[in-house]
Design a protein that fits this description.
Layout (H helix, E strand, L loop, with lengths): L2 H14 L3 H12 L8 H16 L3 E24 L3 E3 L2 E2 L6 E9 L5 H7 L7 E5 L12 H10 L4 E5 L31 E4 L1 H11 L5 E22 L7 E8 L9 H18 L9 E7 L7 H7 L10 E7 L11 E6 L2 H13 L5 E5 L7 H5 L4 E6 L24 H19 L11 H10 L10 H4 L4
Parallel strand pairs: 4-5, 5-6, 6-7, 9-10, 9-11, 11-14, 12-13
Antiparallel strand pairs: 1-2, 1-8, 3-7, 4-8, 8-10, 12-14
Helix pairs in contact: 1-11, 2-7, 7-11
Length: 471
């Protein structure tokens, strides 16, 4: 039996008999809490992950620290003043500033470009009411930040987002800075307030609005401040071509209203487990496998923008051959893992063949998302894929329980974590040891062409997270 096959068997046995992933999930969620980017909770979680990488035998373990602007939640008040008086439970979206606002409400429904086009200039000086993410599994619809930007450009003074999943759950999600890259704290606050409400509150507001022209009053008090975050990095050094690197990463930060268990503590502990499973084989695989637990994904992919820079120059830290993003890995019951090549059908075909040859159940596809940690690497031309797991919320709208109070530990189980860890570690070992792995860094013309083909050309010159860095 060859070395790769022996390693695969040892990985599988170790993964299925270990409960370390679940223990680490409990520590991240129950002990450290939400891990919002730049918070003390996130800083303590980073130190824990660093200590675990050292304990598991990874090498060159360190924190890659970077400055950023964090945000702290204060009070939020929302009340309808016309045609009836009624208050509603609401929360501020991250980077909402402070102030009082009262105006007529303009309902744009799903908040797609056509919806805003239909209302013309009626949103100017008004408060926009829009659905949060409305996509069902397999659908491609506008992201929250797209709808928010449309509201800002339409001249609205505030934007209310309605969760599309019942359960009295507020919806959250970070907003664009009003002056990305600016030198002052206020530059990094949102241009207008963003408010998150439940499905039930949104339905009630829309019913009451049928009685007459609706108006609402909003009062918010929050703070933005200069802080720092860290990527947590450790290596399993390679052998024959140790200078080539395969990177596996998942973000460990979450939103401050929940534990962020499935988004993405589960993915972070799977990344950590892949490192543990492979650490005994240092020097036995051709390429170096690098594990990165990213900070600040939820507030603009700040950690991955920072980390991707280190591979671009002639003095780069290793020749990066592939980035594998584990945002969403480890959820569900296991056995429903999906690999998405970033606008690269040939790379999808490679992984389809790899999975088949190793008896791995791994659905493969090719598409382009701009809202997770693979995107900065894609923009720099590096081959990238996302490896995630379907979960019990697959029939829900948008993120399901993600970005709500209900993204808690009870939504994740050991079997799902074990399944994802086993599959991803075996994929890591196979790619790291594949002398014929042919994916190469793309030039910028090719990157632009893929963005245009995917109808994401607006990100050629600008991405809100990249522009909003504190560096």
């Amino acid at each position: 039996m060859g070395t790769t096959e022996e390693i695969a068997q040892r990985i599988a046995g170790d993964a299925w008999t270990s409960n370390r992933t679940y223990e680490n999930l409990l520590r991240l969620c129950d002990d450290f809490g939400h891990r919002f980017g730049g918070s003390d909770s996130e800083h303590r979680a980073a130190e824990f992950l660093q200590a675990k990488m050292i304990e598991y035998g990874l090498q060159n373990v360190h924190l890659e620290r970077f400055p950023m602007y964090s945000w702290s939640r204060g009070s939020c008040f929302l009340a309808m003043t016309e045609p009836v008086e009624r208050s509603f439970s609401a929360i501020s979206m991250p980077y909402t500033g402070s102030g009082s606002f009262e105006a007529e409400v303009v309902d744009v429904g799903e908040g797609e470009a056509a919806d805003f086009s239909q209302i013309g200039d009626r949103a100017r000086g008004k408060i926009v009411l829009t659905d949060a993410e409305t996509n069902r599994p397999g659908e491609a619809k506008s992201h929250r930040t797209d709808k928010y930007q449309r509201a800002v450009e339409a001249g609205a003074i505030a934007c209310i987002f309605v969760n599309q999943n019942p359960g009295m759950l507020h919806i959250s999600g970070a907003l664009y800075a009003q002056n990305p890259g600016g030198p002052n704290v206020r530059d990094h606050e949102a241009a207008i307030p963003g408010i998150g409400i439940s499905f039930e509150a949104g339905a009630a507001m829309r019913r009451l609005a049928q009685r007459g022209t609706p108006s609402v009053r909003i009062r918010v008090e929050n703070s933005t401040f200069l802080s720092h975050s860290s990527n947590v990095i450790g290596d399993i050094p390679g052998g024959d071509v140790a200078g080539e690197t395969i990177l596996f990463g998942g973000h460990y930060d979450g939103h401050d209203i929940s534990q962020g268990a499935s988004d993405n503590a589960a993915g972070a502990v799977v990344a950590l487990e892949v490192g543990r499973l492979l650490a005994p084989f240092a020097g036995k695989l051709k390429r170096t496998v690098r594990i990165v637990c990213f900070g600040c994904e939820e507030i603009g992919l700040l950690g991955s923008w920072h980390n991707s820079d280190r591979y671009k120059s002639d003095q780069a830290d290793g020749n990066l051959r592939l980035m594998v993003n584990l945002d969403g890995a480890g959820r569900g019951q296991g056995g429903q893992e999906i690999l998405t090549a970033t606008a690269d059908p040939e790379l999808a075909s490679y992984f389809e063949a790899l999975a088949s040859s190793r008896n791995l159940k791994l659905d493969t596809r090719s598409s382009l998302s701009v809202h997770s940690d693979h995107f900065p690497y894609f923009m720099a031309g590096f081959p990238s894929v996302g490896l995630s797991s379907r979960d019990a919320t697959a029939g829900m709208i948008g993120r399901g329980y993600g970005h709500t109070e209900a993204d808690t530990v009870d939504k994740v189980n050991l079997r799902g974590l074990q399944s994802a860890s086993m599959i991803i570690a075996r994929v890591a070992a196979a790619v790291a040891d594949d002398a014929d792995f042919a994916a190469q860094r793309a030039d910028q013309d090719d990157v632009v062409a893929r963005l245009v083909q995917s109808k994401q050309e607006r990100f050629i010159e600008h991405h809100w997270g990249h522009a909003n860095r504190a560096e």
